[in-house]
Amino acid sequence: MAYAANDLTRKWDPGMLPLPGYYWPPGAIRGQGIEALVSAFEALGYEICSGSDLEDGYEKVGLYVNRFGSWEHVAKQEEDGWWSGKLGNLEDIRHPTPHAVSSADYGQVMYFMRRRKRGQRESTEDTKGL
């Protein structure tokens, strides 16, 4: 999860706090349910979106849950539309679709979330009606 949030210095796991080296975003729900993972990314400025398509001006993540409803994995979308993730303490991987890693080990994608890339202004289309 930390990898998808661009934090390469800590492991993100609310169940391991307050052990050194672990982190969870302040104000985010703590737990292993998908609502906790959604809350953690909302704390980073992400919002749930409709799909995995590459959107100009946004960065996206895919949130994976296992068959018990617990979050299992997070992948992030790269600039070229491919997805990447970290397999625990193993290597980083790249895959063409977010579903390419769906499995019993990593779960299934349940939500996609997006946030505006830093330094990106809203387009006129995004501000209509404001």
Please name the defining characteristics of this protein.
130 residues; mainly beta; two-stranded parallel ribbon; 11% helix; disordered C terminus
Structure explained in plain terms:
The protein is mainly β. The protein has one domain (11-119). It has helices at 34-43, 124-127; strands at 11-12, 22-23, 47-49, 58-65, 71-77, 83-86, 92-95, 108-116. The strands form two sheets. A six-stranded antiparallel sheet has the order 3-8-4-5-6-7, covered by helices on one side. A two-stranded parallel ribbon has the order 1-2. A hairpin with a 5-residue loop joins strand 5 and strand 6 (83-86). It starts with 10 loop residues before the first strand and ends with a helix. The relative contact order is 0.19. Residues 123-130 have low confidence and may be disordered.
Spell out the blueprint of helices and strands.
Elements: E1 11-12, E2 22-23, H1 34-43, E3 47-49, E4 58-65, E5 71-77, E6 83-86, E7 92-95, E8 108-116, H2 124-127
Parallel strand pairs: 1-2
Antiparallel strand pairs: 3-8, 4-5, 4-8, 5-6, 6-7
Summarize the structure.
The protein is mostly beta strands and 130 residues long.
SS element count, helices: 2
Shape: globular
Assembly status = single chain
The parts where pLDDT drops under 50 for at least 5 residues are: 123-130
Number of domains: 1
Overall mean pLDDT stands at: 87
Q: Sheet with the most strands?
A: 6 strands, antiparallel
Category from helices, strands and their pairing: mainly beta
Total DSSP E strands: 8
Succession of helices and strands:
EEHEEEEEEH
Strand order of the largest sheet: 3-8-4-5-6-7
**Overall radius of gyration:** 15 Å
What is the end-to-end distance? Answer: 34 Å
Beta-strand percentage range: 25-35%
* Helix content percent band: 10-25%
